[in-house]
Amino acid sequence: MMLIAVGESLKYLDKMTQGKLLAAYPDVDWKGAKGIRDIMSHHYFDIDAEIVFWVCQDKVPLLVRTVFRMQADLG
């Protein structure tokens, strides 16, 4: 559920900043981070637990570090 909330929040943030904020941090796959929300919300019968685990283990740490960097940059 947290991945759904994160994806939804990123979509909103991207919309509110006209796509400029996320684009300034290209290390993160923002399209994938936002898209996982749609997959988990609408295609829940197709969710592969191993892929979700991989995302949480390998992708979320970079996302978290980047969000903290964004927060620091914005003051």
From TrEMBL:
Pfam families from the UniProt entry: HepT-like
Coiled-coil residue windows: none
Organism: Hydrogenispora ethanolica
UniProt keyword annotations, A-Z: Hydrolase, Nuclease, Nucleotide-binding, Phosphoprotein, Toxin-antitoxin system
GO-annotated cellular components: toxin-antitoxin complex
Domain of life: Bacteria
Molecular function GO terms recorded: hydrolase activity; nucleotide binding; RNA nuclease activity
Protein's name according to its UniProt entry: Uncharacterized protein DUF86
Cross-referenced InterPro entries: HepT-like, HepT_RNase_toxin
